Amino acid sequence: MPVDPLLQGLVAGFAVEAQEVVQKVTMDLLELERDGLETDALSKLYVRLGRHLHTLKGSASSLGMQDLGDIAHKLEDALAPLKANPQKMPRPVVDILLHGLDLFMLRAQAHADGRGDALPDPAAALAQLVAEAPPPEAAAAMGAPGSLKMSVSAAQVEVESPAPGAAAESAPVMPELVPESADAGWRVSARQVTALMREVERLREVRLRFEERGRELDRVVTLLAKQGLLAETAEARSQLSGTSRSLRTDGEETGDIVEALEEGLKAITTRPVRTILDPLQRMVRDLSRQLGKEARLSVVGSELSLDRRLLEKLQGALVHLLRNAVDHGLELPAQRERAGKHHEGALTMRIEQQGNLLYLECADDGAGIDVERVKKVAESRGVVTADETARLNENQVRDLIFRPGFSTRTDVTDTSGRGVGLDAVRASVEGLQGRIEVASTPGQGTRFMLTLPVDLGSSPVLVVRATETLVGLPMLAVEATQLARADSLRLGKRRAHMEYQGQLLPVVDLGARLGLRALAPPTEGQPLLIVQSGGKRVALAVDAVVGDRDLVIRPLPSEVRDVPAWQGAATLSRGELLLICRPDWLVTDTSQAQVVAQRRALVVDDSLTARALHRAMLEAGGFTVHLAASGARALDRLATDTYDVVICDLDMEEMDGVQLIAKLRERKETATLPVILVSAHDSAAARERGLAAGADGYLSKRECAAGRLLAEVLDVMSRRGNRA
Question: Taking the model in full, what pTM does it have?
Answer without folding.
Answer: 0.50
